Amino acid sequence: MIAFERRRQPSALWAWATPPLAVLLTMIAGGLMFAALGKDPVAAIKTIFWDPILGEFAWYYRGQLLVKAGPLILIAIGLSLGFRAGIWNIGAEGQYILGAITGAAVGLAFYPIESVFIFPLMVIAGALGGWAWAMIPALLRSWFNTNEILVSLLLVYVAEQILASMSLGLLRNPEGAGFPGSRNLSQYPSAANLEIASGTGIHWGVVTAFLAVIVAYILLSRHSLGYQIRLAGQSPRAARFAGVRPNLLAVICLGISGALAGLAGLFEVAGPAGQISIDFNTGYGFTAIIVAFLGRLHPIGILLAGLLMALTYIGGEAAQAGLGLPQAAIQAFQGMLLFFLLAVDLLTHYRVRIGRREVA
Amino acid sequence: MDLSAINWVLLFASLMVASTPILLAAVGELVVERAGVLNLGVEGMMIVGAISGFAAAVGTGSPAIGFLAAAFGGAALSLIFGFLTQYMLSNQVATGLALTLFGLGISALMGQGYIGIKPPSTPKIDIPVLSDLPILGPVLFAHDLMVYLSLALVAGIWAVLRFTRTGLILRAVGESHGAAHALGYKVVRIRMAAIAFGGACAGLGGAYLSLVRVPQWTEGMTAGAGWIALAIVVFASWRVPRVLLGAYLFGGITVLQLNLQAAGIAVPVELLSMSPYLITIIVLVIMSSNRGRTALSAPADLGKTFHASG
Lengths: 360, 310
Fold this sequence. Notes:
The complex is a heterodimer. By secondary structure, chain A is an all-alpha fold. In chain A, 70% of the residues lie in helices and 3% in strands. Chain A contains 15 helices and 2 strands. Chain A has helices at 12-36, 41-49, 51-54, 58-84, 92-110, 118-144, 148-168, 204-222, 224-234, 236-241, 246-270, 284-294, 299-323, 327-344, 346-349, and strands at residues 2-6, 350-354. In chain A, strands 1-2 form a two-stranded antiparallel sheet. In chain A, helix 1 packs across helix 2, helix 4 packs across helix 9 and helix 13 packs antiparallel against helix 14 (327-344). Chain A starts with a strand and ends in a 6-residue tail after the last strand. In chain A, 52% of the residues are buried. By secondary structure, chain B is mostly helical. Chain B contains 13 helices and no strands. Chain B has helices spanning 8-34, 42-60, 63-87, 92-110, 136-140, 145-163, 165-175, 177-182, 187-213, 225-235, 240-263, 269-288, 291-297. Chain B is globular. Classes of the chains: A mainly alpha, B mainly alpha. At the A-B interface, strand 1, helix 6, helix 7, helix 12 and helix 14 of A face helix 4, helix 10 and helix 12 of B.
């Protein structure tokens, strides 16, 4: 008989040990899945986790790592603040799209003027776009008690329609021979988010992501807002007695996560993606949810988790090219990781007792 | 605006078909939530049901076996959720999200070889006399069996929840798992059964999309239907007859906007395509604005983890 006994306090050891354990279990289960697809599991795992960092073509992949990790970390940091307070913004994908649209629109409005002020203005517009989109679920939650999970998620589908409309209409490249998609921002020097040091993959979005990690760390450990967030998550009742206003907190948390997702979208559209197009969004907003949990909602953890998740993207592409592993297998692999993480998290809060259960 | 271009009889006839996937998923989720479990993985279970049903129907040539396989597929996926939340005591919101993300991935993987294939057609049943009625015939009596099965399922669930001991126990578990446990009911087992049932319903809903409504397989084809089903449960204040109303209302909006697109009215296509989601949000706002009512109608222990200590 296996029984679980609640710990007085969460185990600090297991809190650190569960994410690596989950990664290990996912590698085993993922290997079985790859084997079921008729691929050599060891080669597949090696291609995904080893080759991009230390293999033959690592010089190419290493730069890509930060390009993918940047938006994931930036979005996940924002989400983690809300998740800690029990506020579930799962529509980061929509906020990411809106940030890209508003940021790109500002840049395109100035085309072809060259000025150093254009890019900063785009950054502000991107953050505001994401923020405004997140304010919809936030305000509906505070005014009408509407469930923010459903509203933020449904707004993703609305955002995708706006994206389609923009790339076919308002923001379409007038010199693009009628093809959908905007002008290429990376070819417009004042609006381009270029690599800061060539070959490293570091662009302004990556820098912002690192800054966000530091600011979030200080916020959570030193600032009273961070204290309120943690308190609201652990005990909503105690938080109310301590003077935390739950509605205001929800607006703040959703606002921050929306603005960060909007920033991620802007840096992506002005840099790696280059233009607004119908298939601009690639699911970073959803993968960031996994990143946030894998990092245990802790800024440093999210930094590491973002890098790991970026690795599965890049390694997945390598495995697609080298082994013919379908891209969907990587998506399933990422989902599996979250399952294992949630499962082994039990060890943090409960002690496992094997043997006969004692009479209480 | 030229509304005469719309054939209203055909519009109402396709309403029932458009509503069925969401009706099935929503009524299944309602049972899960009445048992006190919030499974946000409906979208994932639907899409896995869509591909398992599609694959089985193409493989065997029988839509009936397809629907059966879809129910099994959805239930199998939901049991992962059940195991994690009921035995590993994980957070239900996070686990439900994981289920959706995993379901979208695994369904795309399963569907590799099925893109562009046509499934065997699901026959429409012909009810003599009734289906020949003018207007009412094509609208109400000329659909496939699944439409009527879904209605029967709704009626069945309504009756079971309202009149039987099983329904009473299920609701007790959802309202107060502590009290139900003290009375000797196996809270975890009852919830596992409810979760599996909800998964099977979502799977059927997904298969109805891929086998009848669309009918073909494309990645991510549920396009938020699972989330709308979740919203409809809130809209319905956790009551069965209102789920029927909500699903048919939603189906009506979907069909109407598709018809308006086809009729080429002077409203941007994107605005019409986003209207079902916008209207769902508006309805959610209206339903939840009365705090007291929502708080009273939701199962009291919805989303709470049960751990029998001692």
